[in-house]
Amino acid sequence: MRTPASTPIPTKPSWRDSALWHALSDTSTALTWFQIAAAFFMLWRAQGWKMMPSLAANPIGAIAASGAVFFGTLFVVATATKLTVLSLPKLKRWRNPPLLVFIPRASNKLAAIVLMHDGYPATWEARMRITDRLDGASIEDPLTRQCLLRKDGKAFRSLLLKHGEKASLILANTIHYMPDGPHMQIQDAESTSYGEFIPPSGVIIEIELISIPGALCAIKRYFKLTSRPREIIELAEVESEELKFTEI
Question: What is the mean pLDDT of residues 204-217?
């Protein structure tokens, strides 16, 4: 016997999606009400009254004063509503700032970092640069490069993450195996760049995650990437106080 499919419960629209809320928070509407209130106020003052006149004594002054009070009130309400709309996201972000938890992952094919988002939703961009080669050789490419963030099988230059969501950042992949260990190559978001080669002795990599727009939050971490025989890649976080390098 077939059971009837359950009917999905419709989602109740938010009060911030109502037409009244959008009308109240619209800047042009607030300016219109201010202009009307100012016109009524000037008309009232032109009648020579300093207080609210009675309708019988001065109908024009009474209507002008009432109109100034009414539309002035609407302007105050619209301004307060607009300020509320602008302040709510900032207040929520201040009370629950976006954070990222870095979880290093390595296999015999690649080195990556799993990013777990905590707090208010934010759109992130990732950047990476090599700060030091552990064999003492000079760095071929010391510049900071943008990296791709990966989620649900897709790659993004910038990615919106909400509380509890995860993304991954691939740092390097193996290009060939040698007796001293896997030789790797840096991955970045630039299609014309093949990335610097990483010997088994390893490198120190700086990872920077920036929330956009406006670089509201920037998080830096440093990782030691090495490899050794039997196709083993090792990735571990190191504290910045342990490193000696030049900021670019």
Answer: 79
